[in-house]
Amino acid sequence: MEKALSGKTRVQPGNANLFLEAVRSQTDPGGCLYQLSSSDSGMDALQNAMRFNLAVPFLNEHASPLLLYFQQPGLAEISNGQLLQSLLLKIVDPPIFWNAFQQAFRDDELTLDGQKAFGWLLLQLLSLPPDSSASYREDPNLNRHIARLLSSNDIDLRTLGHRVKHATDSEAAPKRDTSAFAAGSTPGGRHDNDFADFREIAIVPTPDEVQSKDPPFIRPSDFLRDPDTESSRVTIHIDNQFRLLREDMLYELREELQLAMGSQKRRRATKITGLQVVGLYLHETQLRGKHVRRVKCGLQLECDEDLAIYRGVNPRRRAKHIQDEKDFLRHQSLACLQSENEIIAFVTIYRDTTLLAYPDQPIIAVQLEGNEGILKTLQKIKKCGDLTLVQIDTALFAYEFVLKALQQLRSLPLSEDLLLWNPEHDVPKELSFLDRATPVANALLLDPRCDLKPILRLKDEIQLDASQSEALIAGLTQRVSLIQGPPGEFDLVAVAQTFSVLIEQF
Asked: Looking at the predicted structure, is the pLDDT value of residue 182 above 90?
């Protein structure tokens, strides 16, 4: 390699494979990238070595391992990605190697590692500056490549497919050259439920999302304090709160999945095996007072044998028994459908006791999220044998209402004080006392320890100390106050009771 970089040895068809092996045997990928990009002889040697032999065995055994070598974490961030970009452009321009690589991918001749190398290279080319990436974005084969990646059984290939699709869906090329590779740098493209607009994210997760290895997109607190974000700070804060809360939900869900699938010692989930899809579940619209509530479309899953919960139960009492056992397959609880330990979909259980009470082969009704979720699930089920339903104890409903409320939120009360207040320039705004609060405030200003019972016309005595009185006055005169009471040093109960009385009287 040193001789090739210095120009003392010329890379030819006879020693091209040896040169590529020498490159990827370097223990410091960053140093290797720098050496190659700093040497005209080295870049020419690499270009020639990648196009002397375009046969499928070469693509799988030499070209793909080289590309995988340059996927090492951190390489795309060296010199803001310019070194890696120049190296990749040297390989694909002119497109002698690239055309052969594309053809092998289309013909399904690449190994799994070869496909991953192809998907990664495609992503990098689409993420180049506009002038350099235009020809790759306009390639008529691009949509076929994306569809092939997204339909793969391998989660890493599907993840690459989502990232490639996200890169092509962007209206303009990324401003930062490293954004395609730097994990966590931008929202969208990690999986099929990752979008730049958090309002497009489905509350119920997808299998690819739960299995994704990429870190989630979460903005650091410093980002909110950046003066450049002031105009959009409220929207950014709501976005961040949504993503943070949803990550809490996903953490709990992943932990429950590990328990249910036996990767941890403790197991407590209901698991039903040997299920077959026998039809769609199309329940009639339900009326709730004046409101019409449409029930989601779902699937009917038929058991291959009777459920264990019916053992020893009189056949005539099956319907009553399943109605009484409400904790078994709880209504609207979260579950996942699996086939040979692969997660097919996350579903919610619709507890139709009539179907569950069927003799010998009960039927379980489950609901799916959205039309796209139904189509994806049906496509996967076509390729599967028996299904397994695993009930998950994560209380999805506890998160769902808050997450949906955040998606609908467009503004925040008191945002000027909580998010946009600058302690160096903004003076806290004082409010004038409300008429009924004036006697309370005046009494406390004269004597912080006075009894508020006669002023508030209460049965019980309310007597505050100096710090409690100060907190109460602050709460009555400022738009926003933070009142903290460390255990043993400050009793918040008395202050809270006083505020409660004042609010009721106002």
From this structure: no
Q: Which helix (H) or strand (E) holds 139?
A: none
| Residue linked to tokens 């009639």 | 284
CB atoms within 10 A of CB 137: 15
Beta-carbon contacts of residue 193 (< 8 Å; ≥ 6 apart):
201, 202, 205, 206, 208, 209
In angstroms, the CA 456 to CA 439 distance is 9
What distance in Å separates the CA atoms of residue 83 and residue 37, rounded to the nearest whole number? Answer: 6
Start-to-end C-alpha separation, the chain: 82
8 A C-beta contact, residue 453 and residue 461: yes
The helix or strand, by DSSP H or E, that contains position 174, with its residue range, turns out to be: none
Nearest Cα to 34, choosing from 22, 50, 23, 19?
23
Residues in CB range of 438: below 8 A, 6 or more apart: none
Q: How far apart are CA 40 and CA 128, in angstroms?
A: 21
DSSP code string of 382-437: HT--SEEEEE----HHHHHHHHHHHHH----TTHHHHTS--TTTPPPPBPPPPTTT
Contacts 24+ apart (CB under 8 A), 184-188: 184/214, 184/215, 184/216, 184/217, 184/218, 185/217, 186/217, 187/217, 188/217
The Cα 42–Cα 11 span in angstroms is 9
Both tokens of 120, joined, read 């990664």
Cα 471 to Cα 466: distance, rounded to the nearest angstrom = 9
Crossing angle of helices 40-49/16-24, nearest 10°? 120
What whole-number distance in Å separates Cα of residue 44 and Cα of residue 48?
Answer: 6
Please tell me the distance from the alpha carbon of residue 433 to that of residue 362, in angstroms, as a whole number. 67
Q: The tokens of 4 are what?
A: 């090739």
Question: From CA 272, how far away is CA 269, in angstroms rounded?
Answer: 10
> To which residue do tokens 């599907």 refer?
158
pLDDT tens digits for 339-394?
887 888 888 899 999 999 999 899 999 988 766 667 778 888 887 878 999 888 88
Q: Report the SS3 class of residue 350.
A: strand
Amino acid residing at 443: A
Q: Select from 170, 223, 224 the least CA-distant residue to 195.
A: 170
pLDDT tens, position by position, 300-346? 999 999 999 999 999 889 999 999 999 899 888 889 898 887 888 88
CB of 387 closer than 8 Å to CB of 337: yes
Q: What is the pLDDT of residues 207-256, one digit of tens each?
A: 889 888 888 888 888 888 888 888 888 999 999 999 999 999 999 888 88
Question: What pLDDT does 224 receive?
Answer: 80
Neighbouring-strand partners of residue 345:
337
